[in-house]
Amino acid sequence: MTFRTSSDAHKYYEGWPLTLKESSDEQIDVVCSKMLRETETEKKKESILCKTCGNEITTVEYNIAVSGQHAHIFTNPLGITFHIGCFSRAWGCFVYGIPTYEATWFPGFTWCVAVCANCFTHLGWYYQSGREGFFGLIMANLAKTDKIG
Question: Which CATH architecture has domain 46-146?
Answer without folding.
Answer: Beta Complex (2.170)
